Sequence to fold (160 residues):
Amino acid sequence: MYDVPTLGLNYRMSELQAALGRSQLSRVDEILARRAANFAVLRDALAGAPDLRLLDASDPRQAQTHYCASVVLEGGLGARRLDAVEALNAAGIGTSLYYPQPVPRMAYYRERDGYDAARFPEAERISDRSIALPVGPHLTTDDVRHVAETVLAVCARLRG
Fold:
């Protein structure tokens, strides 16, 4: 289970990664636009789907990177989250959990701040029921539509 036992810093970037990252900066606007377009395709394709809520924090006053698309599995689907992840991964859709538990439940923050589940009900609900779907710039519009179709099919199957 993902946990944060102590406060720390993450300096894992190698020189090679830094060089690649620097070269990507010349394309950052293109990359972010592609991610936003892919997110919009996924949002539109999943709109109205029962028991699926795409988290969309779009606000013109804020920048959004659309690193991934987080979908909250509502109703009975929430309890089948790991089944959904396994089925999507088996179908070739790179799916993961962001994050397996909310920050207040992580050891460091729980011990430092005292944890009270009643204070963070939505954070818990989202964390315990969400999956992350790909919207990276390497995906074509057809790829994203395939992701959405697969998500809808898997969820329909899980609903029974």
In short: The radius of gyration is 17 Å. Strands lie at 52-54, 69-73, 130-133. DSSP finds six helices and three strands in the chain.
